[in-house]
UniProtKB/TrEMBL annotation:
Classification via CDD domains: ThiL
Binding site for Mg(2+) 4: D32, D84
Protein name: Thiamine-monophosphate kinase
Catalysed reactions listed for this entry: thiamine phosphate + ATP = thiamine diphosphate + ADP
Miscellaneous comment as given in the Swiss-Prot or TrEMBL entry: Reaction mechanism of ThiL seems to utilize a direct, inline transfer of the gamma-phosphate of ATP to TMP rather than a phosphorylated enzyme intermediate.
Binding site for Mg(2+) 3: D32, D84, D235
Keyword Metal-binding part of the UniProt annotation: yes
Organism from which the protein derives: Paenibacillus mendelii
Pathway given in the UniProt record: Cofactor biosynthesis; thiamine diphosphate biosynthesis; thiamine diphosphate from thiamine phosphate: step 1/1
């Protein structure tokens, strides 16, 4: 198939005309550019601002076809951008998808990649309205741009954390990194990792799912943003330590995280124990969890947590914001500091801004 036949094969009939109209699409895929109407603001006379994010995934750098299926790659390429929109308190609306395709990725494989991408788009209400297609000499490259909206003046940046605020996350941490660890071990051990059923994965199925099909916290972001008490927000793409440092630097404040309050799932704890590894390393430095890390007014934290729980979504209060030079510390419990009395004492450890970095 030539370029244009390929585009039609990947995209035709993927999204209902009604869905596209809901998102204000006037002209979609197939012309020189897409045309969309600006959606109405929230409430009478309300205004919106556009929120734009772009993310690129490169084969062998961001994904490996030995550990991820083609549809997983498509899902994750869009999900990473959806998460960035959520991290601003916004609503994802439109996507542009550019692919650079090597010969090894024949039409059937690319069709499966678009299966995953459109599944993610439907799940989060995103209209795919265009993109670009080129050839690649070796690796597949997928670049997605997502456009979202946020109420004017209500976008939540990384820069608003204040001393006294509570630090929170909207889901468990470390699952994606642990899932990748299992997948790589399976591949190196000669097992077939793709496709993988829950039965094959045993107790690690949730970890594998978290790595292959991350679930951005879009609804949680909307509920929290509507409270008006969130002071900073970031998504955990490169690891909790890295994202916490980004908030600390942007806000010129110190984040103190409590080890005992970091959310760890049972499947992650069990797998780490099985491997003889410390799960804390995955929690702090794993990345690609795509939950939200943020800060909010302490007076509203417990009420917000209850509201989130009532709405069926997790929220974990994991620390506080303190005055001082920008930094991130982990508060740990150590029985050795109790002077042999059996009591426990706290000790603080600085957390390095370590996480995934392309140029480190």
């Amino acid at each position: 198939m030539d370029e244009f036949a390929s585009i039609r094969h990947w995209t035709d009939g993927r999204q209902a005309a009604e869905r596209l109209r809901e998102q204000g699409v006037v002209i979609g895929i197939g012309d020189d550019a897409a045309v969309v109407e600006a959606p109405p603001g929230p409430g009478e006379g309300g205004a919106l601002q556009w929120v734009l994010a772009v993310d690129t995934m490169v084969e062998t750098v961001h994904f490996n076809t030995a550990t991820m299926g083609e549809a997983d790659v498509g899902w994750k390429a869009l999900a990473a951008n959806v998460s960035d929109i959520a991290a601003m308190g916004g609503v994802p609306r439109h996507a542009l998808v550019s692919v650079s395709v090597p010969r090894a990725w024949e039409p059937a494989r690319m069709r499966r990649l678009y299966d995953g991408l459109y599944a993610c788009a439907e799940h989060y209400g995103v209209a795919v309205v265009g993109g670009d297609t080129t050839s690649s000499p070796a690796q597949l490259v997928v670049s997605v741009t997502v456009v979202g909206t946020v109420a004017a003046g209500k976008a939540i940046s990384r820069a608003g954390a204040k001393p006294g605020d509570v630090v929170f996350v909207t889901g468990p941490l470390g699952l994606s990194a642990a899932g990748l660890h299992w997948l790589l071990a399976a591949v190196h051990g000669g097992e077939e990792a793709v496709p993988l059923t829950a039965a094959q994965a045993g107790g690690t199925a949730a970890l594998v799912q978290a790595h292959r099909r991350p679930a951005p916290s879009v609804r949680a972001a909307q509920l929290l943003a509507a409270r008006g008490t969130v002071t900073s927000l970031n998504d955990v793409s490169d690891g909790l330590a890295s994202e916490a440092w980004e908030i600390a630097n942007a806000s010129e404040a110190k984040l103190a995280l409590r080890e005992t309050q970091l959310p760890i799932s049972g499947s992650l704890a069990a797998y780490a124990h099985r491997c003889g590894l410390d799960p804390l390393d995955w929690l702090l430095y794993g990345g690609e969890d795509y939950v939200l890390l943020g800060t909010m007014n302490a007076e509203d934290a417990a009420v917000a947590k209850s509201a989130m729980t009532a709405a069926g979504m997790p929220m974990y209060l994991i620390g506080t914001v303190e005055a001082g030079a920008p930094g991130v510390e982990l508060i740990r419990i150590d029985s050795r500091l109790g002077g042999g009395t059996g009591r426990y004492a706290e000790r603080r450890e600085p957390i390095r801004p370590r996480g995934y970095n392309h140029f480190a």
